[in-house]
């Protein structure tokens, strides 16, 4: 199942709009921007619909709405393990990308991509960065979910202080997140070790890929055997 | 899919429905001739050789009679031959003059103009006037095809239909580049461009391509071809004619390209939703179309960070090109093929650096021969690696409509993140477990925390979405690296997956080879006097069964 390009939460009207030539009609910009606002309020993410907005900006530069653009990029940040943010950037140009909010978001994106999660959180706590994300509800928690996913891909056990730094959570907040994730902590001590259940990514075994002969590969040989 | 009441099927092509209002005023009455010094009436006295005169009147007759076979000849050989002989360094006779001597202003003249301007673009330097006229001519051509009463009788060869769509997009892209070169232009030129924003606008180009798709019902036809159903009903009056069907199909590929040129890689791949990429696909009928399709699909995958899919796509078409190279003798096709495959090798070098992958042996050797040095530099890391990434990217990327430097910058940021990974990999390959501190010391990284980040980054980048089935945009996350690891706090546990020896493949290939030899032998036996068993030349072939490299295989 691939939900990236057609999330189940997408209304039918939007679906029809972005799958027809109506997606190029500048009159539809507002409809799509409204849908974007909905996504931000309800913790949903519809990349394909948001790319349609950027396409309209690309063709009609006078429609460019900086606050909507910021929302789109902030949404894309929450899926930093995928190429979403870049796919958005590719539809912009140098002069838009040089605007202050975009530069700041690109900086945050870089920290996430480089897995410098501690630096990401401390930068985000500065007010001029935090302001960029206020309109996206649950931004912090969805970023946290994604970071936790990345950690669970690599680690079987991790030092608690490091985890606190990566997730920017301490004490009871951290414990409650660990509970939701099903991760267990060796002790309530701050210097304990957190164990992450095995999953398909953090369970790694050396394998030998053996060849698999398809029947089709043998047809010629069988054909020859017939003629003898 | 593109059913839209406001869409263009019914409106003249150069009236674009979604242009913003300021532009609407000027575009309803496009007649750029007013803007130019009209000196065409003075050029009536043109010397036209008899051969050309005959060629033109034959051409006109075959268009009127809709003689597909003769039109094929005219397009594929005669026009090119005459061009080389008479018009290698100058344009073909002015269409206005040709129209007046042949007393024609219909579809023949439109087709002649298409060739006339294409020739100017290919061999000479088009003026702003040529660019405008060529655009208007395309509008005439597409209006004739889309907005005549009922489908028109015009059976052009597939190659020509592909070239029309291809050239239309090429001239669009060339115009966008030209428009952005402010410095070298005269005021009059700038004025013309400012006054005619509808000329080669994105909206009008998309409009044409979507209209052709809609008119031909190609989407419905492809769906029926895939899922079964009544093909004739799905095709309708227009789509059942080859010209419409092929134009519709080529427009899908055209949109794949236009979306890439605009930096919209998801839309580009989305265009291919109903086209199954296999050896029976329609794009294989015209080689140029086949190669173009794979170049842009591969490029879009690369930009989407789906390197494994990009590598698979480029490898497929490069194998095809290397196998069929000798059959593409016609000069301009050959040139296009060589150029595009050289670019694809460069893109392949980029992808393989970002995502080490085992390639087809021929492709691998060719790649090493051509870009071995660059691959080595990219592997070594540092600023030089980044410069190499950039050089290769700028050489091999399509000619963007959107600023290409920006596309390169975004792509290169990807390369920058991964710059340390090849070195990291080469150390990890030597161990099954090692501590973070030790690895940091090897890599001369002072801050262990930095290495922890790199390890997470490596882990992230060694998982990619890979196509398994369905549309091109679909895919499943799968490991893209043969080297994997997990962490227990600061201890790195490494595992490598290895490809086992491929015995069966080796034997199948050699049994087939032997069978072929036996068949040839038997055939030649039938043709020549019988030869006794035991004579040289007979049993020698049985020795092939013992693998010469058997020791190596073990």
Automatic annotation (TrEMBL), chain A:
PANTHER family: EUKARYOTIC TRANSLATION INITIATION FACTOR 3 SUBUNIT 11, EUKARYOTIC TRANSLATION INITIATION FACTOR 3 SUBUNIT K. The lineage of its organism: Eukaryota, Fungi, Fungi incertae sedis, Zoopagomycota, Kickxellomycotina. InterPro entries: ARM-type_fold (IPR016024), CSN8_PSD8_EIF3K (IPR033464), eIF3k (IPR009374), PCI_dom (IPR000717), Transl_init_fac_sub12_N_euk (IPR016020), WH-like_DNA-bd_sf (IPR036388), WH_DNA-bd_sf (IPR036390). The keyword Transmembrane helix does not apply. Its main location: cytoplasm. SUPFAM superfamilies: ARM repeat (SSF48371), Winged helix' DNA-binding domain (SSF46785). Component of the eukaryotic translation initiation factor 3 (eIF-3) complex, which is involved in protein synthesis of a specialized repertoire of mRNAs and, together with other initiation factors, stimulates binding of mRNA and methionyl-tRNAi to the 40S ribosome. The eIF-3 complex specifically targets and initiates translation of a subset of mRNAs involved in cell proliferation. It is found in: Cytoplasm. Residues 45-212 form the PCI domain. Keywords: Cytoplasm, Initiation factor, Protein biosynthesis. The keyword RNA-binding does not apply. Belongs to the eIF-3 subunit K family. Signal peptide: none annotated. It comes from the Eukaryota. GO terms for cellular component: eukaryotic 43S preinitiation complex; eukaryotic 48S preinitiation complex; eukaryotic translation initiation factor 3 complex. One of its GO terms (molecular function) is RNA binding. GO terms for biological process: formation of cytoplasmic translation initiation complex; regulation of translational initiation. Component of the eukaryotic translation initiation factor 3 (eIF-3) complex. This is Eukaryotic translation initiation factor 3 subunit K.
Automatic annotation (TrEMBL), chain B:
One of its GO terms (biological process) is formation of cytoplasmic translation initiation complex. The keyword Coiled coil does not apply. The keyword Ribonucleoprotein does not apply. One of its GO terms (cellular component) is eukaryotic translation initiation factor 3 complex. Residues 1-29 are annotated as: Disordered. InterPro entries: eIF3l. Its main location: cytoplasm. The chain crosses the membrane at residues 247-269, 281-302. Keywords: Cytoplasm, Initiation factor, Membrane, Protein biosynthesis, Transmembrane, Transmembrane helix. Coiled coil: none annotated. It is found in: Cytoplasm. GO terms for molecular function: translation initiation factor activity. Belongs to the eIF-3 subunit L family. Component of the eukaryotic translation initiation factor 3 (eIF-3) complex, which is involved in protein synthesis of a specialized repertoire of mRNAs and, together with other initiation factors, stimulates binding of mRNA and methionyl-tRNAi to the 40S ribosome. The eIF-3 complex specifically targets and initiates translation of a subset of mRNAs involved in cell proliferation. Component of the eukaryotic translation initiation factor 3 (eIF-3) complex. This is Eukaryotic translation initiation factor 3 subunit L. It comes from Dimargaris cristalligena.
């Amino acid at each position: 199942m691939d939900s990236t390009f057609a999330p189940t939460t997408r209304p039918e009207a939007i679906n029809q709009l972005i799958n027809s030539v109506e997606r190029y009609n500048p009159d539809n910009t507002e409809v799509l921007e409204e849908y974007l606002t909905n996504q931000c309020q309800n913790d949903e993410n519809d990349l394909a619909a948001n790319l349609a907005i950027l396409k309209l900006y690309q063709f009609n530069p006078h429609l460019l709405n900086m606050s909507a653009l910021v929302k789109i990029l902030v949404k894309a940040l929450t899926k930093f393990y995928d190429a979403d943010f870049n796919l958005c950037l590719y539809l912009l140009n140098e002069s838009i990308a040089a605007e202050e909010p975009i530069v700041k978001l690109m900086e945050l994106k870089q920290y996430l991509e480089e897995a410098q999660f501690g630096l990401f959180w401390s930068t985000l706590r500065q007010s001029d960065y935090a302001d960029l994300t206020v309109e996206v509800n649950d931004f912090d928690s969805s970023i946290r979910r994604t970071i936790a996913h990345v950690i669970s891909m690599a680690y079987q056990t991790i030092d608690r202080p490091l985890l606190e730094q990566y997730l920017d959570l301490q004490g009871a907040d951290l414990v409650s997140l660990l509970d939701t994730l099903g991760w267990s902590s060796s002790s309530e001590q701050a210097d304990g070790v957190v164990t992450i259940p095995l999953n398909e990514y953090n369970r790694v075994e050396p394998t030998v890929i053996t060849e698999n002969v398809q029947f089709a590969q043998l047809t010629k040989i069988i054909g020859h055997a017939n003629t003898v | 899919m593109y059913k839209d009441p406001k869409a263009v099927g019914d409106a003249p092509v150069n009236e674009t429905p979604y242009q913003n209002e300021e532009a609407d005023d000027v575009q309803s009455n496009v007649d750029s001739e007013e803007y130019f010094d009209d000196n065409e009436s003075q050029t009536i006295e043109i010397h036209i050789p008899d051969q050309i005169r005959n060629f033109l009147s034959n051409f006109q007759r075959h268009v009127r009679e809709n003689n597909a076979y003769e039109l094929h000849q005219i397009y594929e050989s005669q026009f090119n031959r005459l061009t080389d002989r008479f018009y290698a360094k100058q344009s073909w006779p002015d269409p206005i003059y040709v129209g007046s001597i042949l007393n024609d202003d219909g579809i023949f003249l439109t087709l002649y103009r298409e060739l006339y301007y294409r020739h100017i673009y290919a061999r000479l330097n088009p003026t702003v006037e040529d660019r405008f006229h060529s655009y208007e001519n395309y509008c005439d051509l597409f209006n004739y095809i889309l907005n005549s009463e009922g489908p028109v009788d015009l059976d052009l060869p597939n190659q020509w239909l592909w070239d029309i769509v291809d050239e239309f997009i090429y001239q669009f892209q060339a115009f966008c580049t030209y428009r952005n070169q402010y410095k070298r232009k005269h005021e009059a030129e700038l004025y013309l461009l400012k006054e005619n924003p509808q000329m080669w606008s994105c909206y009008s180009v998309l409009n044409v391509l979507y209209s052709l798709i809609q008119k031909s019902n190609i989407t419905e036809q492809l769906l029926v071809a895939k899922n079964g159903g009544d093909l004739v009903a799905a095709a309708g009056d227009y789509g059942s004619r080859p010209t419409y069907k092929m134009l519709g199909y080529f427009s899908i590929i055209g949109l794949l390209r236009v979306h890439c040129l605009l930096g919209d890689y998801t839309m580009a791949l989305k265009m291919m939703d109903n086209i199954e990429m296999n050896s029976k696909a329609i794009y294989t009928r015209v080689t140029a179309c086949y190669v173009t399709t794979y170049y842009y699909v591969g490029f879009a995958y690369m930009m989407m960070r789906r390197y494994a899919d990009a590598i698979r796509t480029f490898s497929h078409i490069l194998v095809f090109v290397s196998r069929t190279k000798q059959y593409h003798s016609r000069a301009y096709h050959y040139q296009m093929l060589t150029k595009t495959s050289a670019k694809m090798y460069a893109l392949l070098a980029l992808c393989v650096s970002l995502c080490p992958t085992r390639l087809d042996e021929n492709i691998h050797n060719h790649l090493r021969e051509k870009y071995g040095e660059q691959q080595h530099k990219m592997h070594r890391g540092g600023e030089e690696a980044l410069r190499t990434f950039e050089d290769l990217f700028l050489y091999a990327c399509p000619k963007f409509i959107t600023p290409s430097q920006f596309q390169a910058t975004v792509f290169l940021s990807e390369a920058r993140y991964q710059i340390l990974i090849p070195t990291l990999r080469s150390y990890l390959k030597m161990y099954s477990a090692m501590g973070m501190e030790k690895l940091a010391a090897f890599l001369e990284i002072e801050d262990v925390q930095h290495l922890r980040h790199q390890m997470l980054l490596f882990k992230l980048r060694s998982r990619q979405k890979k196509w398994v089935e369905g549309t091109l945009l679909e895919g499943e996350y799968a490991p893209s690296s043969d080297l994997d690891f997990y962490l227990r706090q600061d201890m790195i546990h490494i595992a490598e997956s290895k490809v086992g020896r491929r015995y069966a493949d080796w034997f199948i290939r050699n049994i087939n080879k032997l069978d072929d030899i036996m068949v040839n032998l038997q055939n030649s036996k039938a043709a020549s006097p019988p030869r006794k068993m035991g004579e040289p030349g007979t049993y020698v072939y049985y020795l092939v069964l013992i693998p010469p490299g058997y020791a190596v295989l073990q």
